Amino acid sequence: MTQSLARDVDVSRPAPEPPQSGAPDEERRIRRIAFGHRLSHWDVKLSPYLYISPFFILFAITGLFPLIYTGVVSLYDWHIIGGQGDFVGLKNFEWVLGQEKFWIALRNSFSIFILSAVPQIILALIIAAILDQNLKAKTFWRMGVLVPYVVAPVAVALIFSNMFGDQYGLINNILGQIGLDPVGWHSQVVPSHLAIATMVNFRWTGYNALIFLAAMQAIPRDYYEAAAIDGASRIRQFFSITIPSLRPTLIFVVITSTIGGLQIFDEPRMYDSTGQGGASAQWMTITMYIYNQGFGVAGGGQFGHAAAAAWLLFLVIVIVGLINLLATRAIASSGSRSGK
User: Fold this and answer.
1) Per residue in 238-292, pLDDT tens?
2) What are the CB-based long-range contacts (under 8 Å, 24+) for 72-78?
3) Contact, 282 vs 298, CB < 8 A?
4) What's the distance, CA 293 to chain centroid?
5) What Cα–Cα distance (Å) separates residue 272 from each residue in 186, 192, 276, 277, 307?
6) What is the per-residue pLDDT for 95?
7) Are 89 and 75 in contact (CB under 8 A)?
8) Helix (H, G, I), strand (E, B) or coil at 302
9) Domains of the chain
10) Could you give the CA distance from residue 83 to residue 304 in angstroms, rounded to a whole number?
11) Of the candidates 319, 262, 301, 307, the residue with the CA atom closest to the CA atom of residue 107
């Protein structure tokens, strides 16, 4: 029996060897796995940048390129008809800084900005606090405050310019009925700034109120319940809970209002029929000055002067932005120290 089994088994044939670790199939499999891991690594690293790339592409096309191109134009004697002229360096900046109207326009821009931004933020806070209460038809009221923002700025400027007319305006008629002298809303500096600031407040107060309202609704209601149990009134709750909680939103609104206020154009441009900022540039802003230099009759189509004034406005906005940044850091550090 054992002899027959030995004959059946071929002892001369060697036993099969185990596959080596360096076999081609296993190498291919390892390489495929390594390449898949590499793709996954690239996906994790590059996907966030691809998601945000549309913003930077649009910013480069609509923001960065015009800024750089304006800087190039400001260094040449560039005319609207003749095109690019000789290289003049910083002479366009020297010419703009030597013009009295430029400083008047800069003063008017800051004046209108202050007269519009401060009351606008205060009114927006009050309106947002009212809308944050349990009102009937609160959706209607919240949508209603946004209606002035939807109205075209040209229409707003035409209506308010007639209301603030020097001779037949509605405001002067009301002042005459109560025994006050009429005001030169178009001929005097401060009244014209007040009228334009009123237009700006009419358009943007509701918009900022909705921003404050969204931030107020994110405040935990437990804070107000605890304050009410301690006997705090609504006014005390507003100044002790609401205002400190709105600090980041307040900073954001202040910064955006500063940038928008220094770039105001539509309201003063449409305040009268000529669009020149008054006979003595009473309400001419920096943006109006830039427009007049580049496209107006008084400027003569000097793109070089307009580009230089635009870059000076950009530097002013950067300086104001840095001041706001320093104020933001100071407020944040004081808030963190008080919270300890």
Assistant:
1) 888 888 888 888 888 888 888 888 888 988 988 887 878 888 888 999 999 999 8
2) 73/303, 73/304, 73/307, 74/304, 74/307, 74/308, 74/310, 74/311, 75/304, 76/304, 77/304, 78/302, 78/303, 78/304, 78/307
3) no
4) 26
5) 8, 11, 8, 8, 25
6) 92
7) yes
8) strand
9) 25-73 (no CATH), 92-339 (1.10.3720.10)
10) 10
11) 262
What confidence score (pLDDT) does residue 339 get?
47
Task: Return mean pLDDT, the chain.
Answer: 82
Q: How far apart are alpha carbons 248 and 262 in whole angstroms?
A: 22
End-to-end Cα spacing for the chain = 95
Q: Which two tokens stand for residue 100?
A: 């009295």
Q: What is the pLDDT of residue 35?
A: 58
Predicted pLDDT of residue 197: 92
pTM of the model: 0.77
Count of H-run helices and E-run strands, the chain: 17, 0
Contact 107, 284 (CB under 8 A): no
Residue 324's contacts (CB-CB under 8 Å, 6 or more residues apart) are: 251, 254, 255, 258
